[in-house]
Specification:
Layout (H helix, E strand, L loop, with lengths): L9 H17 L17 E2 L5 E2 L11 H6 L2 E4 L22 H4 L13 H11 L2 E3 L5 E6 L5 E3 L5 H15 L5 E5 L5 E5 L2 E4 L2 E2 L6 H4 L7 H5 L9 H4 L20 H8 L3 H13 L2 H4 L5 E4 L9 E4 L8 E12 L4 E9 L8 E3 L1 H8 L15 E5 L1 E5 L2 E5 L8 E2 L4 H5 L1 H8 L5 H21 L4 H20 L4 H8 L2 H5 L18 H17 L21 H9 L33 H4 L15 E7 L3 E3 L3 E11 L5 E12 L5 E7 L2 E7 L7 E7 L10 E9 L6 E12 L1
Antiparallel strand pairs: 1-2, 3-18, 4-5, 5-6, 7-8, 8-9, 9-10, 11-16, 11-19, 12-13, 12-16, 13-14, 14-15, 17-18, 20-28, 21-28, 22-27, 23-26, 23-28, 24-25, 24-27
Helix pairs in contact: 5-10, 9-10, 15-16
């Protein structure tokens, strides 16, 4: 059975998200009457349609002691008798209280550590484990003996989840601050979700609405009581347009089910659904919530923020290991990071080679991006200051703190990391950079308009060129080895001069159309090299994308084309033609490149296998059991990539969820959105089966999640790239 993701329909959520932006832009409406289903006036939608709150605009004062003290928040005496999420029993600085002296998940009895230090010790203790498909992630350990593979989350969500979980388990104060579309100061914390005037919008009264079963902890650990389940929480998802399936805990499970498994206090699970909905990397970069850390002070539990713009998304990585080695002349370090992503995934544990690359990136607060407040961050610690909860820099960590006003020292951090992080073998770095390039390509296959992914791909290629020089490789040789056709079709664009960059609703089907158009050009001119058609806006007296729409029409796929829309703040919306970055690559026509393994044939050691089921099956209306269609693959080998073609007739696309099932593994393959008819996918990429055996039965489960609209599965095809 596939539990329903939300108790309320996603249709009004999508419509209300749009309404929210209009309300926020006009500045009208009361906070308890306007906004989305929770009364929240979001600041903007990020690249994935996630509603994000705005930053506070607070700047650290020039004086170091004033900056460390932070910005006063809500009164400690605030009446949270109905809104509280958890009770405060300890303070982050405690070292010698009875609770602080007890042994814990990663520290012995009488450790002498503060709770802040214990948080870092806990993150450092989280063991590595295999990640389905490829790579490694970490196991989550809890004070109650529960151990689970890490949840599938977006990158900033991983950092917030770890901090909230630890604070709630040990009764420690926690809050983060943001502003809504009307400029109201909002506080998400142990006291609930509030403004200075009281509960915000239609947010929950967590204490009176939901249960806390923490008093059962000892009995559960002794085996005398069963773990309590909140079925409503277990059926919930993180609201928004992106999937949050948690297959590591069961078929059809979503984030609410994961939180139900790790929190005896169910209020925390409900709170996290809201915290992770409205906060993103821009809020973690806000100095009111986090502070800058010196390279030498790096600790597990810190975060590494890549910021290349003042608003919108960035990338967040959690420091999992920070091993320090003394040398005769200076400190040397080896770091390891883990990060989630969108679409949500289990955090991918990065090896030291990739970690060094990310810590030394110019986007990590280097000279060209320091103004965007990226780099290594650490959570500010809530304490009482003059009767108010205030997020401060603990005094005992003052030597590891870098004021936001120290711009020169902040901008030098990437270079300093380059100096103190251990040297990597060239082949290690080569593999790390190749992995980054492929990761950005995978993102572009689902979101071909993404300018961030294009830029990150080219940043990695620039590093490949530099590394190639050290290995005696020319730029041509690097491109011949690593470049594919898709890099040229989805060339890097200058964000502020390209309206494509504001377009977040592009799809995998549009990626396929752009690639098919260019492949046809190449096939039609066997004796010459054609000019490739870059996926971008061009001056065509229409909306800038007529060449792709015409091609889609010519192959009877015009219905797959999504019209351009400004899905985020877009000052460049009226730009007549997008501007490409001055490329460092070898032009495609100089070496012919190599196409990515997406053409159904062999490429090196890569083979493909496909199977189609054309049985027409009615889709049960509003039934979590859905309907299943199977195909058989009779081929040996290991899965390298999975793509599906699907043809579904339905009168409301947003009702449809698709799940791909093989060998006991269930992956959410598609989550419909919008009110358009039908679901037609061509070459839709499904991640999560990499490394699995290809042979056997593969099933497509189709679920209709809402009542009224009806449809049927007409046919579907499975394509496997095999090693």
């Amino acid at each position: 059975m596939i539990p329903m993701s939300l108790s309320s329909s996603l249709r009004p959520f999508v419509l209300l998200a749009t309404l929210t932006l209009l309300i926020a832009a006009s500045g009208c409406g009361e906070e308890t009457e306007a906004g989305d289903e929770h009364g929240v006036l979001v600041d903007e939608l990020d690249e994935f349609g996630k509603p994000t709150l705005g930053t506070t605009g607070w700047e650290e004062p020039a004086g170091k002691s004033d900056a460390m003290q932070g910005r006063p928040g809500l009164p400690v005496s605030v009446d949270d008798s109905s809104t509280a999420v958890w009770e405060i029993k300890n303070q982050w600085a405690d070292r010698d209280t009875p609770a602080a002296r007890e042994a814990g998940m990663a520290w012995p009895e009488d450790s002498g550590l503060s709770w802040e230090e214990k948080f870092h010790k806990w993150v450092e203790s989280l063991p590595r484990t295999e990640r389905p498909g490829s790579g490694e992630t970490f196991m989550l350990t809890t004070p109650h003996g529960v151990e689970l593979p890490a949840p599938s989350l977006e990158c900033a969500e991983v950092a917030m989840f770890l901090r909230v979980a630890f604070a709630s388990w040990y009764g420690l104060p926690y809050f983060t601050e943001a502003t809504d579309g009307n400029g109201n100061r909002l506080y998400f914390g142990h006291f609930g979700i509030r403004t200075a005037q009281g509960r915000y919008g239609r947010m929950a009264n967590f204490k009176t609405q939901y249960q806390d079963h923490s008093d059962r902890a000892e009995a559960i650990m002794a085996g005398d009581a069963r773990w309590p389940t909140d079925t409503n929480l277990a059926g919930r998802s993180i609201p928004g347009n992106s999937a949050d399936a948690q297959p590591m805990i069961g078929e059809g499970a979503h984030s609410g089910a994961y939180f139900d498994r790790v929190f005896l206090n169910k209020r925390v699970g409900y709170f996290l659904l809201m915290q992770l909905t409205y906060f993103g990397s821009i809020n973690l970069a806000d100095p009111v919530n986090t502070y800058n850390v010196t390279p030498e002070g790096l600790r597990p539990g810190d975060t590494v923020l890549h910021r290349w713009q003042s608003t919108g998304i960035g990338h967040v990585m959690v420091v999992m290991r920070a091993d320090k080695f003394a040398t005769d002349s200076s400190i040397q370090m080896e770091a390891q990071l883990a990060s989630g992503s969108m679409p949500r995934r289990q955090p991918l544990w990065e090896n030291p080679a990739t970690a060094k690359r990310n810590l030394t990136s110019s986007n990590a607060g280097g000279p060209d991006t320091v103004q965007f407040n990226g780099g290594v961050k650490r959570w500010r610690t809530p304490v009482e200051v003059n009767g108010r909860w205030t997020n401060v820099v603990p005094s005992f960590l003052a030597d590891e703190y870098l004021p936001a006003t120290a711009r020169t020292r902040l901008a030098e951090r990437p270079q300093r990391f380059d100096d103190i992080l251990t040297e990597l073998e060239p082949e290690e770095m080569l593999g790390a950079l190749e992995g980054i390039v492929e990761g950005q390509r995978a993102h572009l296959r689902n979101y071909p308009a993404s300018c961030a992914a294009r830029s990150r791909r080219e940043d990695a290629f620039n590093d490949l060129y530099e590394l190639g020089e050290d290995l005696g490789m020319t730029r041509l040789e690097v491109d011949e080895r690593f470049r594919t056709l898709e890099d040229y079709v989805f060339a890097e664009l200058i964000y502020g001069q390209s309206k494509t960059c504001c377009w977040n609703s592009s799809t995998n089907e549009m990626y396929q159309l752009a690639m098919d158009l260019n492949r046809q050009l190449i096939e039609d001119t066997p004796d010459a090299c054609p000019d490739l058609v870059v996926f971008k806006n061009r001056d065509d007296e229409s909306d800038g994308f007529e060449v792709f729409r015409d091609f889609a029409r010519s192959v009877d796929k015009e219905h797959l084309w999504v019209e351009w829309s400004a899905d985020e703040n877009c000052p460049q919306a009226n730009t007549p033609q997008d501007t490409q970055v001055g490329h460092q690559w070898t032009p495609w026509c100089e070496f012919g490149g190599v196409d990515e393994p997406d053409d159904g044939g062999e490429q090196g050691d890569m083979t493909t296998a496909s199977a189609t089921n054309q049985e027409e099956l009615a889709i049960p209306d509003n039934d979590p059991e859905g309907v299943t269609s199977a195909v058989e693959i009779d081929a040996t080998g290991v899965v390298d990539a999975v793509r599906i073609d699907v043809d579904i007739t339905h009168t409301w696309r947003g009702d449809i969820r698709l799940y791909l099932i093989h060998d006991g593994v269930t992956i959410e393959a598609y989550r419909g959105s919008g009110s358009e008819d039908d679901v037609v996918l061509s070459g839709h990429v499904v991640e999560g089966f990499e490394g699995e055996s290809a042979s056997g039965t593969w099933e497509l489960l189709v679920v209709d999640t809402m009542a009224q609209d009806l449809g049927q599965l007409n046919e579907w095809t499975l394509h496997l790239d095999l090693n």
